[in-house]
Write a structure and sequence with these properties.
Helix content: 25-40%
Order of helices and strands: EEEHHHEEEEHHEEHEEHEEEH
Strand content: 15-25%
CATH class of the largest domain: Alpha Beta
CATH topology of the largest domain: Double Stranded RNA Binding Domain
Largest sheet: 4 strands, antiparallel
Number of domains: 3
Radius of gyration: 34 Å
């Protein structure tokens, strides 16, 4: 039997084999006797801790990013943007689970976000119906659910902060985490604020290396056309003569009857080529530029 040393108020255990004594600390003695009371955490501290947990869990995310986290990338297929010649708005379609969704906006980023929001709505509603069919039959002690509440809340926060910023409010960067947004002039469409997620959908512009003119004795030496210029591909030849150029391609009509318009700017002049595929449209634009600037005809 253990005996109590009143002087030190410690419980002493006697080892019957070697007679060694093991003293136990006061807190363990009080814990066994039930004299230690658990300190209560103040409500304001509990609230701040809850805010911290929710802040790490609910991060504002655009619909495109939410979709990428919910499903595999190859499960949703986005189509090429199609421009309406009258309104100049872009339409993007997406196919998921055999269903086609679409989004319309002033640029590709906004149209894709609106389209992705429709896909997210489909996923959430389907999951909610599945949860209702299961009913009270859940597995696990904590319960299980298919509805992606975290993704829905993240997109809702993203849209709310975008709306506030579109109204002129300066949203703190800390609220947007690492996803700053910038307003876009055109009016709202389909209830989606025209703001862009810079980090996600607006890629950093590529820095083009401008070809410096060759100057000899103060006189600029222009590059001469090769003798077999007409036999070379116009895009390759234009690149050889003028360096790297930007080609803008827009489509008109629905696939497979879509028509592509490609435009390239050379020496402050715009040249356009049109065809039923992007490659030939680009080739025609380059050919028109070569014909006007250098007199090379591709017939």
């Amino acid at each position: 039997m253990p005996r109590v040393n009143n002087a030190s108020n410690n419980v002493v255990n006697m080892d019957l084999d070697n007679g060694d004594k093991k003293e136990q600390p006061d807190w363990l003695t009080k814990l066994k006797s039930g004299s230690i009371e658990k300190k209560k955490v103040p409500k304001d501290v509990q609230k701040r801790r809850r805010n911290y947990r929710h802040g790490n869990l609910l991060i504002p995310k655009p619909p495109v990013m939410a979709i990428m986290e919910l499903i595999k990338q190859d499960e949703v297929v986005y189509g090429n943007p199609i421009m309406d010649p009258l309104t100049r708005l872009l339409k993007i379609t997406a196919t998921y689970d055999g269903v086609t969704f679409e989004g319309v906006g002033p640029n590709k980023n906004i149209a894709k976000n609106i389209c992705s929001e429709n896909v997210l709505q489909y996923i959430a509603f389907r999951a909610c119906k599945k949860d209702q069919e299961v009913g009270a039959v859940v597995q696990g002690n904590q319960g299980e659910m298919e509805t992606p509440w975290t993704s829905l809340a993240s997109v809702a926060l993203f849209k709310m902060f975008n709306d506030w910023q579109a109204q002129g409010a300066e949203v703190p960067v800390a609220l947007m985490k690492c996803k700053p947004i910038v307003p876009v002039p055109p009016p709202p469409n389909n209830g989606f604020s025209h703001t862009e997620d810079v980090n996600m959908a607006a890629p950093k512009p590529k820095i083009k290396k401008e070809r410096k003119p060759r100057i000899v004795d103060g006189v600029e030496i222009k590059k001469e056309l090769p003798e077999d210029a007409a036999s070379k591909h116009p895009v390759m030849l234009l690149h050889e003569m003028k360096g790297q150029l930007d080609y803008e391609i827009v489509s008109e009509g629905d696939f497979p009857n879509a028509v592509y318009h490609c435009t390239v700017t050379v020496d402050n002049q715009r040249f356009t080529g049109t065809f039923r595929n992007k490659k030939e449209a680009k080739k025609n634009a380059a050919a028109n530029a070569m014909a006007v600037i250098y007199g090379v005809n591709y017939n």
